[in-house]
Structures are given as C-alpha cells and as structure tokens.
Amino acid sequence: MVEGNPYKVLVKKCRKRFKADAVGTAPLETYNLVTGEVRTATQLVGTQKIYDTTDFVKFYEPSILIGMSSEAVAVFAYIASRLQFGGYVQFDYDECIAYTGYKSRQSVYRGLMELAKKDVVRQKCRGEWWVNPNIIYRGQRDEFESIRVL
Q: Among 4, 26, 84, 88, whose Cα sits 20 to 30 Å from the Cα of 47?
C-alpha cells in the first residue's frame, strides 16, 4: 500500500480577473435619488473573464500509447473513463472486462501490468491505482492552470 500520491505535482488555481477601464477622462456628476447628494466621479466599465466550470480530463501524452498492446490501450481507456479527482482510479476487474469486451481477467491483467511498467499507473492498495497526472489528469476548468513535476 502506497501512502499519498507517489506522483509529485503542482496544480495552480486560476483566478477570475476583473479589469476596470475608465471611459473618457471628463468628470461625471452623479445624483443620489435617495439622499439628493451630487458627486463628481469617473465612469468605469469592468470586464470579468469567466471560466468553464465543467469537469474535464486532460490527456498530455497520447504518444505513450504508441507501441503498446491492444490490451494496455483498452485498459487505459477504462482507466480514463473511471479517473477520480485526486489522480486515482478504483479498479474493478469485472467492470473492466465488460468495458473492454475481453473474456478473461488475464488479458486485463496483462494490460494493467504493461501500463504499470510504463509508469502510467502505480498500485495504491487492493482495487485502487494511482494514475500519473503528467500523462492524464482530471480536474475542473475553473481551477486548472498548470501541472508539472516538482
């Protein structure tokens, strides 16, 4: 059993930005209808960048699948479809067999071991695997800016 994610990463959160621009340079008088107060001010217009908040899976290294067996590619597709926040997947052999269409656990096991050999996944505990976030990562668009090895 591996304590904590063995892959060291840094995820920076994007900040929503608000930029105010002055419209014209001449002072503008404003009148408060409630108090009757008259003030001199500058008119401002603001814009805010809005991020898409839907979940996404980012695939960084599609070339990692080149040269892998069909079993490894099929198991990788299963892992990508089940990827959790935090960079791990709960791996169920029976679900993977149904997803990939294989008849036996042996084909799934061979594909999983090939992915482990290429450092795409590492075993966390029985039934759970860490997924290398430098290859594939799941997050939210409004929180994602960059990911890198520390």
A: 26
